[in-house]
Write a structure and sequence with these properties.
single chain; about 30% helix; Quinone Oxidoreductase, Chain A, domain 1; 11 helices; about 325 residues
Length: about 325
């Protein structure tokens, strides 16, 4: 089968190879999916660069956790009626070596939920890390109806979905964006207010958007860089749910300041989510997809042969939207 893999850590153009590998065999409890699309996420790029030093101990790795395609075979214990079913895939390259940057992947059937017929394969490749992370950030701490939620980086891969989950669940969303195009995307997704996180008056803008009151929760893309502002705008007993801290990778926590506000700090990554949370996210995602309730931002669609370029686009940190590979 056609595939991409790496045998050492390093830059995308130095270590990513494209060629032929053996087609995987489907095991008990698994489905064999012919991949149509593969999503590239920051965690995939970081793994290739060496963030998991033991990743290559057992041999080469086929990257990417997210994808979509059609089930062609099932293993023992899986309903044969799933053959021919369209599926979206998550966690393909977590705790295992072989991800979705290939023509085929064999994966636990629970990691390949049905993809509604009205959703394209490009969309399916965005449901794993972006949509599930956003879902967990918004709903992990209970009902959000009637609350005010700040979503930083609202035009990004996760933030864009977080705005939609929160607003459709009855929350008032204040999003941050730094230019008119991203602001328009946030408004279209359901944000009631958009503030500029690059302005010196960022905190004042947030409070003014909420009639001078602190917000109930924050979904944050840059935890370390935003921490002082987050503490300033969050109510007593509020929650920060964060999934990234790229600019400040080892933030210093003002313990007493956070303690006196009874702040709950939640770190979110799909791989470590409880299975119940994953099932909740999958159910809500498929219901929303079937009803065409979600908007999607796909910034680039590239052929498998250009996976190195896709990795570089993610590493630049300037694109808003997903990078998806098409597998022919």
């Amino acid at each position: 089968m056609r595939a991409t893999w790496f045998e050492s850590f390093g830059s995308a153009r130095d270590v990513l190879q494209v060629g032929e590998k053996d087609e995987p065999e489907v095991g008990a409890g698994e489905v064999l999916v012919r991949i149509a699309t593969s999503g590239i996420n920051p965690s995939d790029v970081k793994k290739r660069a060496g963030s998991f030093p033991n990743l290559l101990d057992l041999g080469y790795v086929i990257p990417n956790s997210d994808g979509a395609g059609v089930i062609e075979a099932v293993g023992q214990g899986v309903d044969a009626g799933r053959i021919g079913e369209r599926a979206w895939i998550y966690q393909a390259q977590y705790g295992r070596r072989f991800g979705t940057a290939a023509e085929y992947v064999a994966i636990d059937a629970s990691r390949a939920p049905r993809l509604p017929d009205n959703a394209g394969f490009e969309v399916g490749a965005c449901m794993g890390i972006p949509a599930m992370t956003a879902h967990r950030c918004v709903f992990a701490d209970g009902d959000v109806s009637g609350q005010t939620i700040l979503v930083t980086g609202g035009a990004g891969r996760v933030g864009h979905y977080a705005i939609q989950w929160a607003s459709q669940a009855g929350a008032t969303v204040i999003a941050s964006a730094s230019n008119d195009k991203d602001k328009a995307a946030c408004v279209a997704a359901g944000a009631a207010h958009v503030v500029n996180h690059r302005d010196e008056g960022f905190v004042d803008q947030i409070l003014a958007a909420n009639e001078g009151l602190p917000v109930d929760r924050i979904v944050d893309v840059e935890f370390g860089a935003n921490l002082a502002a987050s503490i300033a705008v969050l109510r007593i007993g509020g929650t920060i749910a964060t999934y990234s801290s790229t600019q400040v990778t080892e933030p210093k926590l003002p313990f007493f300041e956070m303690m006196y506000k009874d702040i709950t700090l939640r770190f979110v990554i799909v791989y470590a989510m409880p299975e119940e949370a994953k099932e909740h996210a999958i159910a809500d995602i498929n219901e929303a997809l079937a009803a065409d309730k979600l908007q999607h931002r796909i910034a680039h669609t590239l052929p498998l042969a250009e996976i190195a370029k896709g990795n570089e686009l993610i590493e630049q940190g300037t694109i808003r939207g997903a990078v998806v590979l098409t597998i022919d």
